[in-house]
Amino acid sequence: PRLKVTSSPFPWKEAIEDYVYRVVEVRGVFDHRREMFIGPRPGTDVNGESVPGFLVVTPLNLEDGSTILVNRGHIPMDRIYQNTRPELPKWVRVKGVLEEGEIPNLIGKYARLKNRPDKNQFLYLVADELAENSGARNHTECSLALVTALDALYEDDFQAGYRRELPFTMRHKEDYLLFWADEHTHFNYAMQWFGLGSLLMAMTLYKFIEVSRWRY
User: Fold this and answer.
1) Bridge partners (DSSP) listed for residue 67
2) How far apart (Å, rounded) are the C-alpha atoms in residues 165 and 195?
3) What is the pLDDT of residue 206?
4) What is the reported pTM?
5) How far is the C-alpha of 213 from the C-alpha of 216, rounded, in Å?
6) Is 91 exposed, middle or buried (0-12, 13-18, 19+ CB in 10 A)?
7) What is the distance of C-alpha 23 from the center of its chain?
8) Which residue pairs, CB below 8 angstroms and at least 24 apart, start in 171-178?
9) Which residues share a beta bridge with 98?
10) Are 16 and 145 in contact (CB under 8 A)?
11) Using an 8 Å Cβ cutoff, are 67 and 27 in contact?
């Protein structure tokens, strides 16, 4: 069932693992001054063509003043500047999936480049690092997870009877049913097979040496 979140403390504050991948609905006002870009990353346009761009994460201030991070989706490179897509602070309802972000495994943790919150430079979607730049008063809660938007409806639009066109390519529910591997997953698979291959080669050489010693 959909989980409505209107204020802090958030339901997942003490048990985030019980709420990950739940569909949640939040209402608030985006803080566009603290918008963050993750990437660069490839995305797709309306025609399905691949385009370079970034993921956009924006803090959403709820009615009680608490904050939750929202991954609004992928935006093309030529739309990252706010003067190309002016947005006013309006009340908006966001439906999305609660995620902890991109959690690296042991190899990725040490082999990859790092996010730099101090310079507002992000390569990976990591909630606790993004929270550093969110300005959230509930920083601990904000750093636990973020909402990956599936839909966003501005209340002004609803009252006027129309829906504005947003420049973001959002994820769909069906995307969570697909097996998707990014470059880090491919790297991890490659390292695993390389390790297995190296071990097999070492064992084979060892056997050849042992047999050679036994024969001579």
Assistant:
1) 61
2) 48
3) 87
4) 0.77
5) 5
6) middle
7) 15
8) 171/73, 171/97, 173/23, 173/97, 176/21, 176/97
9) 147
10) yes
11) no
The residues, ordered by sequence, that sit 6+ positions from 206 with a Cβ below 8 Å of its Cβ are none
- Span 65-86, pLDDT tens digits: 999 999 999 999 999 998 999 8
The segments of the chain whose pLDDT lies below 70 read 104-112, 174, 176-185, 214-216
Q: How far apart are CA 24 and CA 148, in angstroms?
A: 10
Confidence at residue 2, expressed as pLDDT on a 0 to 100 scale = 85
Reference 77, options 42, 46, 114; nearest CA is 42
Q: Which two tokens stand for residue 63?
A: 């009615």
pLDDT at 193: 87
**Is 148:68 a contact under the CB 8 Å cutoff?**
no
The pLDDT value recorded for residue 188 is 73
Residue keyed to tokens 């550093």: 132
Unique residue bearing structure tokens 């966001």: 94
**Distance from C-alpha of 62 to C-alpha of 134, rounded to nearest angstrom:** 13
Which pLDDT score, from 0 to 100, does residue 107 have?
52
Retrieve residue 68's tokens: 């939750």
pLDDT per residue as tens digits for the range 93-119? 999 999 998 876 555 566 567 888 988
pLDDT of residue 111: 59
User: In angstroms, rounded to a whole number, what is the distance separating the alpha carbons of residues 146 and 97?
Assistant: 8
Helix, strand, coil share of the chain (percent; to 5) = 35, 30, 35
